[in-house]
Amino acid sequence: MDYLNQSIDSLHEQLVNKEITSEELTKETLQRIHSKEDKLNAFVTINDDATKDAAKVDADGIKGRLSGIPIAVKDNILTKGMLTTASSKILSNFMPIYSATVFEKLNQAGAINLGKTNLDEFAMGSSTETSYYGTSHNAWDHTKVPGGSSGGSATTVATGDAIAALGTDTGGSIRQPSSFNGIFGIKPTYGRVSRWGVVAFSSSLDEVGVMSKRVEDSAEVLQTIAGHDDHDATTSEREVTDWRANLNKDMHGIKIAVPKEFWHEGTDPKVLKTIDEALDTYKKLGATVEEISLPTLKHAVEVYYVIASSEASSNLQRYDGVRYGYRAKDVKNIKQLFVNSRSEGFGDEVKRRIMLGTFALSAGAYDAYFKKAAQVRTIFINELNDVLSKYDLIAGPVTTSTAFGIGEKIDDPLAMYMNDILTIPANLAGLPAASVPAGLADGMPVGLQLMAKQFDEQSIFNAAYALQEENKFYQQIPTALKEED
Amino acid sequence: MISKDEVLHVAELANLKFKDDEIDGFVSQLDKIVTIASNLSTVDTEGIEPTYHMGDTKTVFRPDKGIHTQTREEMLENVPETQDNLIKVPTIVDKEDDE
């Protein structure tokens, strides 16, 4: 059976009508994942017990729309009794004793956990190359990065193996790999989804979201995991919208703002051409598209790396070799235990961020770096909110290029950081944002980015759905996959 | 410019250490990043409130009653070394070698 081009809806119907069982579906999915894992390295842990979980769901009877549907989970989301490493040596032996709220919610909905997908160590990176478990590979071209940090989730969805996957997004970690792999990926509003049980990176920026080939499938999964959580005081008490049922592809009267700074000379003209074509599609469908300016965008990378690294340096203090995780051997005293466990347990990129953050928060640097970045953040938030008070959506490219080659940028941290300039704004302002497949440039996928007002995920889903119904990108089979078959 | 001494001081604060052959590379990388971050000084932020956290900042209240979370045994499952149901760590005060 091939469900590469099927939606959750269509699989649900077949499950309900007993044309297929969740056990068959899960078994087939696991076989496909295993057959490609040598080439993709999408997973840190593959859950071979998933077929048993599926058989249990079959026995209990298919209920809601996610019941019996296999889904992959990024390996920085805690899964009770299943290794959760955040792709770091320091957590390489960590067996959670509780599950993240988002995972519990998927469980309650009857979804089947396929396993834990690879990421950049602690989600710090844009290529999965900082993973302790080695890089994952792009679904379209295995010599290229899948993007990051949710690279494993992106590549397994793009190959059509996992129908959907959970990711996290602190500065673009869902949208950039979605763009690089030609799938849909959404980071919701800050506070829309619980982060309880999600390995903390930068607490004022981190969000959990969803990746899938089809817009409606992400809507379904996101509304399942969204909502208030007593365990996470930053979650909103607002009702969760039934985004999926409310999907509306009518673009008449929708106002789209296009920041001229996104059409930067450093951005690949072929990427921009694909984005221009997507915007033309929206005009054809009745939307208005107008150019606006975000002058503070030029400081976004600086603001982001100061704030994200400062928060990371604080959050990652907990890894000390005492209560869980990697513990250094042959130490003489407690200080050496801390220093050696951390120095042996963290990779270079994580150390770089901890160092930058510790510096930015240190006496003498705090006002000039951390406080200053927080003030510029306020200016930028006001700029974005001002635009969104006049427009329904902000649109532009997700990335400045298509997927780059493995090894191409890893030795130049600054070049890697600059990759994030177009995705960072939504995190700094806590806005919902998505990458929508727009087309190909030189045979590699290009994502259109859509941002909306806080808690207006519906506008993003609607516009994404409108574009999807025009270009049907989900029907495309990644080039590398075609060559193998 | 960020100096090697500053980097070593920050490493001390962060409970990290670097091998001698790593440190120079790290100093130059960190220096480049900090130089870029220094561009922030060109932005006029007079009178602008900093944004330190996001979301609704209202205090959340709940009844003050205990709930069951994890047992002691569960809490100790991931501890690298235990003894008598306690977390075991090396000497905290070491007079001989207090590196």
From TrEMBL, chain A:
<comment type="similarity">
    <text>Belongs to the amidase family. GatA subfamily.</text>
</comment>
<keyword id="KW-0808">Transferase</keyword>
<dbReference type="GO" id="GO:0006412">
    <property type="term" value="P:translation"/>
</dbReference>
<dbReference type="InterPro" id="IPR000120">
    <property type="entry name" value="Amidase"/>
</dbReference>
<feature type="active site" description="Acyl-ester intermediate">
    <location>
        <position position="173"/>
    </location>
</feature>
<feature type="active site" description="Charge relay system">
    <location>
        <position position="149"/>
    </location>
</feature>
<dbReference type="InterPro" id="IPR004412">
    <property type="entry name" value="GatA"/>
</dbReference>
<comment type="subunit">
    <text>Heterotrimer of A, B and C subunits.</text>
</comment>
<feature type="active site" description="Charge relay system">
    <location>
        <position position="74"/>
    </location>
</feature>
<comment type="function">
    <text>Allows the formation of correctly charged Gln-tRNA(Gln) through the transamidation of misacylated Glu-tRNA(Gln) in organisms which lack glutaminyl-tRNA synthetase. The reaction takes place in the presence of glutamine and ATP through an activated gamma-phospho-Glu-tRNA(Gln).</text>
</comment>
<protein>
    <recommendedName>
        <fullName>Glutamyl-tRNA(Gln) amidotransferase subunit A</fullName>
        <ecNumber>6.3.5.7</ecNumber>
    </recommendedName>
</protein>
<keyword id="KW-0436">Ligase</keyword>
<dbReference type="InterPro" id="IPR023631">
    <property type="entry name" value="Amidase_dom"/>
</dbReference>
<dbReference type="Pfam" id="PF01425">
    <property type="entry name" value="Amidase"/>
</dbReference>
<dbReference type="GO" id="GO:0016740">
    <property type="term" value="F:transferase activity"/>
</dbReference>
<keyword id="KW-0648">Protein biosynthesis</keyword>
<keyword id="KW-0067">ATP-binding</keyword>
<keyword id="KW-0547">Nucleotide-binding</keyword>
<dbReference type="GO" id="GO:0030956">
    <property type="term" value="C:glutamyl-tRNA(Gln) amidotransferase complex"/>
</dbReference>
<dbReference type="InterPro" id="IPR036928">
    <property type="entry name" value="AS_sf"/>
</dbReference>
<feature type="domain" description="Amidase">
    <location>
        <begin position="24"/>
        <end position="460"/>
    </location>
</feature>
<dbReference type="GO" id="GO:0005524">
    <property type="term" value="F:ATP binding"/>
</dbReference>
From TrEMBL, chain B:
<dbReference type="Pfam" id="PF02686">
    <property type="entry name" value="GatC"/>
</dbReference>
<comment type="function">
    <text>Allows the formation of correctly charged Asn-tRNA(Asn) or Gln-tRNA(Gln) through the transamidation of misacylated Asp-tRNA(Asn) or Glu-tRNA(Gln) in organisms which lack either or both of asparaginyl-tRNA or glutaminyl-tRNA synthetases. The reaction takes place in the presence of glutamine and ATP through an activated phospho-Asp-tRNA(Asn) or phospho-Glu-tRNA(Gln).</text>
</comment>
<dbReference type="GO" id="GO:0070681">
    <property type="term" value="P:glutaminyl-tRNAGln biosynthesis via transamidation"/>
</dbReference>
<dbReference type="GO" id="GO:0016740">
    <property type="term" value="F:transferase activity"/>
</dbReference>
<dbReference type="GO" id="GO:0006412">
    <property type="term" value="P:translation"/>
</dbReference>
<protein>
    <recommendedName>
        <fullName>Aspartyl/glutamyl-tRNA(Asn/Gln) amidotransferase subunit C</fullName>
        <ecNumber>6.3.5.-</ecNumber>
    </recommendedName>
</protein>
<keyword id="KW-0648">Protein biosynthesis</keyword>
<keyword id="KW-0547">Nucleotide-binding</keyword>
<dbReference type="GO" id="GO:0006450">
    <property type="term" value="P:regulation of translational fidelity"/>
</dbReference>
<keyword id="KW-0808">Transferase</keyword>
<keyword id="KW-0067">ATP-binding</keyword>
<dbReference type="GO" id="GO:0050566">
    <property type="term" value="F:asparaginyl-tRNA synthase (glutamine-hydrolyzing) activity"/>
</dbReference>
<dbReference type="GO" id="GO:0050567">
    <property type="term" value="F:glutaminyl-tRNA synthase (glutamine-hydrolyzing) activity"/>
</dbReference>
<dbReference type="InterPro" id="IPR036113">
    <property type="entry name" value="Asp/Glu-ADT_sf_sub_c"/>
</dbReference>
<keyword id="KW-0436">Ligase</keyword>
<comment type="subunit">
    <text>Heterotrimer of A, B and C subunits.</text>
</comment>
<comment type="similarity">
    <text>Belongs to the GatC family.</text>
</comment>
<dbReference type="GO" id="GO:0005524">
    <property type="term" value="F:ATP binding"/>
</dbReference>
<dbReference type="InterPro" id="IPR003837">
    <property type="entry name" value="GatC"/>
</dbReference>
